[in-house]
Amino acid sequence: MSALYPLRLTPSRREKIWGSTDLAPLFGPQERKIGEIWYTFDENTVADGPLAGRTVGDLMCFSGAELMGTAFRPGETHFPILVKFLFTSDKLSVQVHPDDDYAFAQEGGPGKTEMWYVLRAEPGASVALGLTRRLGPAELRQAALSGEIERYLHWTPVAKGDVIFCVPGTLHSIGAGLALCEIQQNSDVTYRFYDFGRRGDDGRPRPLHIEQAVAVTRLETHPGPQQPAGDRLVSCPYFVVERVRCAAADIYRPDPARVHVLIALEGRGTLGGQPYQAGDVLLIPASLGPLEWRAAEPSLALRAYVPGE
Q1: Angle at 190 between CA 187 and CA 201, to 5 degrees
Q2: Could you tell me if 169 and 231 are in contact, meaning their C-beta atoms sit under 8 angstroms apart?
Q3: Would the pTM of this model clear 0.90, i.e. be above it?
């Protein structure tokens, strides 16, 4: 295999009923309603260089610890962190994600812990996190079936730079007029409580998963969006997320124990000789030495990685 280098990934764009043609601030206007852009799914590919076209899954299989770091356990087949951008012109469904215990038992895979970093928020944009009053399982089920759950949603305004950490079991929705970076466990298990009466492309109501949702929903109050004072935004057993910046020139130091996912949000330049611009996502292999970071424009990025034990 060719020597590794900072690996810029090819995005995977996905249309959604609640998506948007406005992908600012990262991309230009679209003809179709794009809801999600995925980057570190196992099937995403390298965009350029000697390894162009190779998938993330292939690289894990063939390079192992050279890519993933000394903490990598042979036999791991799925990249641990999934990075997405989300763009909304309508509300997402009222939904909830299970934890690992429930998901492995019922779905055969991991649960979903996630966080959102707000990139753009139109005036009045908000997210729903939990309910305005505590509902028992029977009340919750009935409210979802009748649609009354809509009046109990706890909507809270959000602004650019806000961070929302969403643990499994948090009932939530994302409102219209938002662009978010989502960093999560590599899982797509979602249970829908309620979908605001919408129909899918086939003209039928989209499936709901009320019994599973009731079974996993946490009733604790969510603390809401945060504006972290420092650059460590989230730290949990599944990922750490930090803000990193380069004004003009700096040295980027990979971690030999673990791969980094670098998510460019502002600026453009080169990292280890590889070009980047806002909206690019790069894997920084653990085996690399210090990299020269040259910013043609002041650059802001998020760095995500799996924490050490």
Answers
A1: 115
A2: no
A3: yes
